[in-house]
Design goal:
Elements lengths: L1 H22 L3 H19 L3 H17 L9 H13 L2 H9 L1 H4 L2 E4 L2 E4 L27 H5 L14 E4 L5 E4 L5 E10 L6 E6 L2 E6 L2 E12 L3
Antiparallel strand pairs: 1-2, 3-4, 4-7, 5-8, 6-7
Helix pairs in contact: 2-3, 3-4
C-alpha cells in the first residue's frame, strides 16, 4: 500500500514538472524578447549604449527566471525593477513604470505567453543594433553588479517650443515636439476696448485678445501623431 502511494506521489510530481516546463520560456525565447524590449526602451527612454546593454541583461535575467505565470510579478519582477531603477535616471524610470508594456511586459493567456509590446510596435522593427553582450551573456549578474556601478544617466531631452496659429486668433505653444492641428469656428464680438484674456493649461498657454468670445458650438481639435 505504501509502495503504491509513493508511486502515485512520484507520478504527480512528474506531471507537475512537465506542466511547469511546458509553460517556461526557452533561452531563445527569452533572448529574443529581452532584445526587443531593450531596443524599445532605448528608443523611448533615450538610453545610453551602456544602459541599453544593462537593460538587455536585466530583461534576460528576469525572463529566464519565469517558469510559469506565478513568477511573472513576484520576486524576480521586483528584482528587475530594482536593478533598472539603479541604472536609470528618475525621469527614465518614471517613464518606464508609466508604460505598461515595459513595466508588465508579458502575461499568460490561452496556454501561451502574450507580449504587450507588440500592440505598440511591429515585431520586425528595431531602432538599434544588437548590444555587444547579446552573444555572450547568458544570465547570472548579481544585483550589486548594477547598484555598485556609476552610471551615466542622461538628462531629460530638451524640446523646442513650436507655435501654432489658429483662425480664431489663438496662439498655442506646443512642448515636447508634438504637432497639434486645431480647427475652430468662433464668432468674436469685440467692444471698443480690447482686454487681454489669457488661460494656461499645463505647459500650454492660450491667449485671446478679445473682451467677449461667443462660441458657435463647433470646435474640433485633432491631435496629430507624435
Amino acid at each position: 500500500m505504501k509502495t503504491m502511494k509513493a508511486i502515485k506521489m512520484m507520478l504527480i510530481a512528474v506531471m507537475m514538472t512537465i506542466v511547469t516546463s511546458a509553460s517556461a520560456m526557452t533561452y531563445s525565447q527569452a533572448k529574443d524578447q529581452a532584445l526587443f524590449l531593450a531596443d524599445k526602451m532605448a528608443y523611448e527612454l533615450n538610453l545610453t549604449d551602456e544602459q541599453y546593454e544593462a537593460a538587455y541583461e536585466i530583461n534576460l535575467d528576469y525572463l529566464m527566471a519565469v517558469n510559469d505565470d506565478n513568477d511573472l510579478y513576484g520576486y524576480y519582477w521586483t528584482l528587475r525593477n530594482q536593478e533598472l531603477q539603479s541604472i536609470l535616471s528618475s525621469w527614465q524610470y518614471n517613464a518606464y513604470v508609466a508604460a505598461n508594456y515595459f513595466y508588465r511586459p508579458v502575461y499568460w493567456s490561452n496556454n501561451r505567453w502574450v507580449w504587450r509590446i507588440y500592440a505598440r510596435y511591429t515585431p520586425t522593427k528595431f531602432y538599434k543594433s544588437r548590444p555587444r553582450v547579446y552573444v555572450t551573456y547568458r544570465g547570472g549578474n548579481s544585483k550589486s553588479y548594477y547598484t555598485a556601478r556609476t552610471w551615466n544617466r542622461p538628462s531629460r531631452p530638451t524640446t523646442t517650443a513650436k507655435q501654432v496659429s489658429a483662425n480664431s486668433n489663438r496662439t498655442v505653444n506646443i512642448q515636447n515636439n508634438r504637432t497639434i492641428n486645431i480647427q475652430s469656428n468662433y464668432q468674436v464680438k469685440q467692444t471698443r476696448s480690447s482686454v487681454a484674456n489669457s488661460r494656461t493649461f499645463g505647459s500650454r498657454q492660450i491667449v485671446a485678445n478679445a473682451k467677449t468670445i461667443t462660441n458657435n458650438g463647433n470646435t474640433n481639435s485633432t491631435f496629430g501623431r507624435r
